[in-house]
Amino acid sequence: MEHQDRINFVLKNYKTEIYQDQSSFGKCDFQIYPDFTSDGYKLTVAKYNENILSKNARDPDGSKGKVFLNENVYHNNFDLSLVFIDKLRKGGMSIYIDDEIYEDAMIDSYLEQEYDVLEERMAETEDANRELSSEAKDKLYNNFI
Question: pTM value?
Answer without folding.
Answer: 0.75
